[in-house]
Each structure stands twice: as C-alpha cells, then as structure tokens.
Amino acid sequence: MKNLFLIFFLIPYIFIGQINFDKVPENFQLFPRDENNDSHVVFSGSISNNIDFEELILKIFKDNVLIEKKSIEILNKKFSSISIIKAGLFQYKFELFKKQDNKEELIYLADNIVSGDAYLITGQSNSHASHIKSIYSNQYARSFGVKTGYETYSENDKKIRWGLATGNCKDCKSDNFISGNDGAWFVKNSYGVGVWGMELAKLLIEKYKIPVCIINGGSGSSTIEENMLYPEQISLETSFGRLAYRTDQAGLKNDIKAIFYHQGESDTYQKNSLAYTDNFEILKNDWNRVYKGVKKIYLFQIHPGCGGDYQSEIREIQNMIYKKYNDVEIMSTTAILGHDGCHFSFEGYKEFAKRIFPLVSRDFFDEKPSTIITPPQLLKTYYSGNKEITLSFDQPVEIEQYYELNRIKYLMNNQFFFSSDNKTPTVQGVVENINVKKNKIIIKLKTDEKYSYMSWMPSKFYENSNIIYNGPWIKGIENNIGALSFFKRKINQ
Predict the structure, then answer these.
(1) Of 364, 395, 418, which residue sits at a domain end?
(2) Are residues 150 and 86 in the same domain?
(3) CA distance 483 to 170
(4) Rounded to two decimals, what is the model's pTM?
(5) Which of 212, 255, 317, 322 has the greatest number of CB atoms lying within 10 Å of its CB?
C-alpha cells in the first residue's frame, strides 16, 4: 500500500504596484458556503516599506448594488479583511481602493463572485463525455481550470482559472464529435464538466437556487489504479494529481461535498478485477485524506459493454463496495437508453444526472422523497417450492419479457444464469416462466435440478453472440430505474 500524503499547492502571490496580495477573490470564483449559508471572502497581503497609504477601502456590491463599504486597517505594512457573503442566485463584486491624499484609487477588482456548493466528478470516459448538443450554460454553474485526459498540465493550463462550466467541447472540430460519436474523451477542455455533470448542475441550480461548482478530472479508458494517488510521481503527471491541483487552486480542497465516480470498464480483466476491491479502498482513502470535507461518494455500476470478460465480477464488486461503506451510494446504469456498446447518447448521459439528482437532494438538501429514488437491488434468493426460486427485491419491480434487436427476441427467461457451486460455469435456458408479484420475481424452472448460485445478465454479450447486452431489464415500478445486476448470489435452500 502506498504511503499517502496530503497535497498542498500555494496560490501565487499577486503583485499589483507595490502591494502583495496573498489572498484575494478571483473573477467568477465560487466560495463554498457553510452551514449558515455563508461564505467568507478574504483580502490579505502587505505593502512595500516605502509606501504609506492612509488606508484601504473595500466596496462590496451585490448584483451591482453597493451593500457595504469598509476601511481595512494596515498594521506593520500588513492587512487582512474578511467579508461574509450569502449563498444564492446573486453575484458579488469587490472593489479595493487605496486612499492617499484623500483620494481613492482602484487597485483591485473581482467580479461575478458567488457562494454555493462544490462537487467532483472523476473516473473514465463515461464520467466526462462532452457532446455537441450540450449547449446549456448558466452564470451560476462554475468550474475551475482545464479538464485533461492524460496530458501534462502545462503552464498555459495553469493560467486558466475560474469560468463558466460547460458540457460541450469548444475545441473539438472533428467529424466524429460533430456527429455525436465522440465524447471528447482525450481532448483538453477548459471548464469541461461533461454532459451529465452539466445536467446535474442545472437540476441543482434550478431547484435549490444555489450556485454550483463542478470540477471533472476523468481520464478516458483509465483503470482504477490510474485514478489513484501516487506520491512518488510529480502530481501533475497523474489524473489524481491534476484534479487535486485544480481543486486546491480553487480553494475548495476541504469543502468538496461529494465525489461522483463512474469507472470500472477498464478493470474487467481477470488480474484487474481481483484487485478492484482493495484498490477502491486505497482510492477512497486517498479521497478522504486529500478532500477532507467529502460526505458522500456516488458510485455508478457499469453497463455491459467495452472491456474484458469479467464485467459481471466488477459489477458485483461494486454492489459489495456500496454495502461496505456508509458514505457510498450506488446507482445503476441499466435500462438507460442510447448505449452504443461502450458509451451513451446525449439523452442517455442526461439520464445519469436525473437518476443521481434525487440522491443528492436527499443527502444535502434534506429532501424527503415521496417515491423510491434508488435502483432495485436483490435482497435474497431462495427456493420457494418445487422447481421454483423467488427473488426478493427492496422495492416493487417489473420485467421486460424480451428485447428485440435485428428481428431477434432476446427473452428475459434466458438472462438468468445458474450454477451448482461457485466455481463451475453457469448455465442458462433452464427457466420455464417468470411471474412478478410486487417486490418478488418468481422463477419456475424446467427441471427439478437444484442450483446453489444464480446471476442476472450476461457479463458482456448475449449468449452465443458478439452483441453487447442491452436488455431486457428489471426495473423499479415507481421510478423506472434499472435494477442493479447481480452475480452468483447464493440461493437459500
């Protein structure tokens, strides 16, 4: 296990004339709000020894209306001032003046300042796909720095500070991107948060009237190890380090509310899958030690698709991760439309945000959901009669009887897999019929052979084909959310 250290990056001194600023607000900056719905904006620094100002004057504007004017005392050539701003859909402006010979001279201006909440998104390509149709923009949706893949964070990148978040990619000119077949997974993108990151910001801003900052550090095709902290490497040479750098430069390192993680496709190979549980624990510890304010981690269970042959195993590991940690929540990607075998359509990515938004509302806005907002998950499996197995879920469910593709009907009956022990290959085609009663799926078998384990969904392909699985699905009746898949669950006799 790696020896972990905390990353600290210093915001460079800003030198204006003969004044050194060590802390000042920046244009378009989002300040994290506290439990009182307040943010603290600091001006601090020093002046040169050969300069004598009578005083510094700070003017604070809210939506261009002057709300406060105050004098900042200079002691021993140093000054410091804290101003409190309220979170909400309004913008602040700060003007700092030096006063000399009874005249005020503007020396620093910071505009479009907001108070709100900050989140991180990371993982591999499905965490950060951009799309040409993602045209939504909002003055209260912010991001910081340059979304990179594996590229070095350059000196020019460091100059890009705060700005308006985007789900598009302004520098993507290829035919593939314009046609919607390329999500800009390996293109540098200033303020890029991805399609569903932008949609999540939209939902939060519109409902709760609170500005949002999202910083996306996803890297296309990355394994879980490539998302981890490597203290022996130069920080800006790793995905973790680049995200931590941007977060710290934004002044948000200790105020990230939640991390959204979509990753796992690149670990669906035998060697990688065996280490995934331990690697996630290392990664989670990395996050918790660097981002001390994190309250929740939202994990997406991967969809059948690109990657290796151990996708069922990874999905089941993700189920177990959710059950292991109190601060981890899980969301399914099953039954999301527009999956192309690896990535999702524009509407599909928007569905990501729509599914996860109610969980964020519950966890951070004290929302009391009137309906079930979580994906159906299997609670227990047992023999309920001769040649009969009952699956008990945590909520009422429904099933799609079949999925038709190229005039072929793929029956739900054939999407359940059984084995006599945990080591032997699974078999399918043994289901006679399926009935659903509220939260129970009752499966009638063709023979009286006893099985000990069962799974739902193939690992990757429909049986005896090279076509990636895309239904039929088990879904929640109340929410239409696809169920979490399960793999080799014990059948109680």
Answers:
(1) 364
(2) no
(3) 36
(4) 0.95
(5) 212
d(CA 30, CA 143): 9
Amino acid code (one letter) for 462: Y
Give the C-alpha separation, 259 to 302, whole Å: 17
Amino acid sitting at position 354: K
Query: Can you give the residue range of the structural domain that contains 273?
Result: 115-364
User: Which CATH number goes with the domain that contains 309?
Assistant: 3.40.50.1110
Last residue of a domain, one of 113, 138, 163: 113
Residues 155 and 267 in one domain: yes
DSSP class per residue in 332-394: --TT-S-B-SSSB-HHHHHHHHHHHHHHHHHHHS----SS--SPP-EEEEEEEETTEEEEEES
Q: How far is CA 92 from CA 59, 145, 260, 262, in A?
A: 10, 21, 29, 35
pLDDT tens across the length of the chain (493 residues)? 343 333 333 444 454 557 899 999 999 999 999 999 999 999 999 998 777 777 899 999 999 999 999 999 999 899 999 999 999 999 999 999 998 888 999 999 999 999 999 999 999 999 999 999 999 999 999 999 999 888 889 999 999 999 999 999 988 988 999 989 899 988 899 999 999 999 999 999 999 999 999 999 999 999 999 999 998 887 898 999 999 999 999 999 999 999 999 999 999 999 999 999 999 999 999 999 999 999 999 999 999 999 999 999 999 999 999 999 999 999 999 999 999 999 999 999 999 999 999 999 999 999 999 999 999 999 999 999 999 999 999 999 999 999 999 999 999 999 999 999 888 778 999 999 999 999 999 999 999 999 999 999 999 999 999 999 999 999 999 999 999 999 999 999 8
Asked if 325 and 394 sit in the same domain, the reply is: no
Q: How many CB atoms lie within 10 A of CB 370?
A: 7
The dihedral region occupied by 45, where left means phi > 0, alpha psi between -120 and 50, and beta the remainder, is left
Q: Judge whether 369 lies within some domain.
A: no
